[in-house]
Write a structure and sequence with these properties.
Length: 290
């Protein structure tokens, strides 16, 4: 199994576009799994008309305090690492669900067994397929929940066994450079860094490549310059940044065909296989699989 993280920093560079088309190309070679780890705004199912076959609710622990058993000792409050529990003046325990990480420390330290196991819904895992050799897993955080790092970690940990059943696992990573992205990158063998020739694209690419240097494993990194050819674009700056680090660069030209492929909800490599965009994506697939 080869794990490929499609990432790159800021949102809107075209990570999902590259991930969907890369997974489609690799699936023509062998069985491939596409994982959408952009849990706050998953969009692979809008770019790929995969048939969703199963939806699983993702739950985590939340404390339910039995006031009749509670001795008011305060150990749950003192030991809560997230400070999600507060003891009021009248000794009642106040629970802040947004702060809770679901670690269950409060339940473990309670000498009166007054903390019972409750469950809260964090989001969904969706399972689907496209064609005979491309399967899809999507992680989707419940609106209003601020635990994207938790959701991404669960998405990876609960599906490691599934990953091993595929020759290629392509992960559409979340934007930014936070803990969720780091969780994805640590699992990868290859990183496809997708950027765009804009000042923001260049700035975030530098941050992302710095993050990769902190990962304690050798990673094959490929830079994809999406929307190549934009008027006044910073293609040369991106290429210089890649050259400093010895990274191969593949250009994906700006094209209205990309917009049309989104409207039709089909990979551009299927709709327009002879286009320059598709040819660039084929080069990415060759580098990834070599």
């Amino acid at each position: 199994m080869k794990a490929i993280a499609v990432a790159g920093g800021k949102g809107g560079t075209g990570k999902t576009f590259v991930a969907v088309n890369l997974a489609r190309l690799l699936s023509s070679r062998d069985k491939t799994l596409l994982v959408d780890a952009d849990v706050e705004n998953p969009s692979t199912l809008f770019a790929l008309p995969a048939e969703v076959k199963e939806v699983k609710q993702v739950e985590s622990f939340k404390p339910l305090i039995d006031e009749a058993k509670c001795s008011k000792c305060g150990l749950c409050v003192k030991n809560c690492p997230e400070h999600a529990l507060v003891m009021l003046v009248d000794k009642r325990i106040l629970y802040f669900e947004d702060l809770c990480s679901g670690c269950e420390v409060c339940k473990l330290v309670c000498p009166s067994s007054a903390v019972n196991r409750g469950l809260r819904v964090e989001g969904l895992f969706k399972y689907g397929s496209y064609g005979e050799s491309l399967d899809v897993v999507v992680g989707e955080l419940k609106p209003g929940i601020r635990r994207s790092g938790f959701m991404i970690t669960r998405l990876i940990e609960e599906h490691r066994g599934l990953f091993e059943k595929y020759s290629y696992v392509v992960v559409d990573s979340p934007p930014g450079s936070g803990v969720g992205l780091l969780s994805v990158v640590k699992e990868a063998d290859v990183v496809v860094a997708v950027s765009e020739p804009t000042p923001l694209g260049l700035n975030d690419l530098k941050k992302f490549l710095t993050l990769l240097e902190r990962v304690e494993k050798r990673l094959k990194v490929i830079l994809v310059v999406n929307k190549h050819g934009l008027p006044g674009g910073l293609e040369r700056d991106l290429e210089e940044e890649a050259s400093k680090r010895g990274l191969p660069v593949i250009a994906i030209p700006y094209s209205e065909l990309v917009v049309k492929s989104y409207v039709e909800r089909r990979p551009i490599v299927d709709l327009h296989p002879e286009s320059q965009v598709s040819k660039g994506l084929v080069e990415v697939a060759k580098l990834v699989s070599s």
